[in-house]
């Protein structure tokens, strides 16, 4: 057995006690899945309704703009596409909604994957005794279901989202039954923030700090959007880590998303390609572990003056 500690010995106290992370384009490439999933849904609607593609797209965009989210799950039955058929929802559901949902889900299953080493990194962070919390601008419906689909819900201590979308009057009986039975719930405890808590408003992170009983200096905050995520970290005194890899979205996918998504909605979900930078940037989520170990990155200009890079 080891002897007593020498005089003056102090056990190392971890600097950080929690990692708070954004979800979309930080843990998984959101654009890479939402574009083909929405396009597959539109393809299905063209086939089942025989309506012009442009009419379908514009009808959906109107609903997405209303709810300020292109992940509103009931957009089809709330769009003008449904109006000629509203007298008989059941047949519309069977012949139009179900094929569209299946098309979306098939594309989602194919393209929605976490970035490399995300699961392993989340496990290693928690293995060090740190809390892992998600903070997202996505509505509860989409965020919770996405973590469950990716099998990431067991890797978080809590998830904070914007309010869920309630079930509309016109919804399949099976969906209503599953909702009431908790089928769409994840294993992660979920807390809904008010709509006004959308980033860069810092009230979401302040709520997390209060709930965990932590000071901002004890938290590392990871996000892909310099203009939305990093101001949240600054306002709370947390260490902001820019997931720069989350901004690597091809022009083709940006253009395709713009066709189906309202401009304001796209701006909410996808970081722009401006010159805005952040000095502490990572090229892989796994580098969060390096930062927890004390690694830092120098701002480019300062590094150039000293002739040094990362240290």
TrEMBL record:
Organism's domain of life? Bacteria
InterPro entries given for it? HAD-like_sf, HAD_sf, S-2-haloacid_dehalogenase
Reply yes or no: does the keyword Chloroplast apply: no
Q: Which SUPFAM superfamilies match?
A: HAD-like (SSF56784)
Q: Does the keyword Transmembrane helix apply?
A: no
Q: Which UniProt keywords apply?
A: Hydrolase
Query: What PANTHER family does its record include?
Result: HALOACID DEHALOGENASE, TYPE II (AFU_ORTHOLOGUE AFUA_2G07750)-RELATED, HYDROLASE, HALOACID DELAHOGENASE-RELATED
Designated name of the protein: Haloacid dehalogenase domain protein hydrolase
**From which source organism is this entry?**
Anaeromyxobacter oryzae
């Amino acid at each position: 057995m080891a002897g007593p500690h020498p005089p003056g010995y102090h056990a190392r106290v971890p600097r950080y006690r929690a990692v708070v992370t954004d979800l979309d384009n930080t843990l998984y490439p959101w654009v890479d899945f939402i574009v083909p999933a929405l396009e597959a849904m539109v393809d299905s609607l063209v086939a089942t309704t025989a309506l012009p593609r442009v009419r379908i797209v514009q009808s959906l965009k109107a609903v997405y703009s209303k709810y300020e989210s292109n992940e509103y799950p009931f957009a089809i039955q709330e769009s003008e596409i449904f109006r000629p058929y509203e007298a008989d929802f059941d047949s519309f559901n069977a012949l139009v909604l179900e094929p569209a949902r299946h098309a979306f889900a098939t594309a989602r299953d194919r393209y929605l994957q976490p970035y490399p080493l995300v699961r392993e990194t989340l496990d290693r962070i928690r293995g060090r005794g740190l809390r892992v919390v998600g903070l997202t601008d996505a509505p509860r419906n989409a965020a919770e279901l996405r973590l469950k689909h990716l099998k990431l819900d067991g890797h978080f201590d809590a998830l904070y989202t914007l309010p869920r979308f309630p079930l509309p009057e016109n919804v399949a009986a099976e969906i209503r039954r599953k909702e009431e039975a908790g089928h769409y719930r994840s294993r992660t405890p979920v807390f809904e923030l008010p709509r006004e808590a959308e980033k860069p408003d810092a009230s979401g992170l302040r709520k997390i700090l209060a709930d965990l009983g932590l000071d901002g200096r004890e938290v590392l905050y990871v996000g892909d959007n310099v203009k939305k995520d990093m101001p949240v970290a600054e306002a709370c005194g947390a260490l902001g880590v820019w997931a720069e890899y989350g901004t690597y979205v091809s022009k083709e996918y940006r253009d395709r998303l713009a066709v189906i998504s309202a401009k304001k909605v796209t701006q909410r979900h996808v970081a722009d390609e401006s010159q805005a930078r952040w000095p502490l940037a990572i090229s892989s989520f796994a580098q969060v572990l390096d930062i927890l170990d004390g690694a830092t990155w120098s701002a480019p200009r300062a590094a150039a003056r000293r002739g040094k890079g990362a240290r």
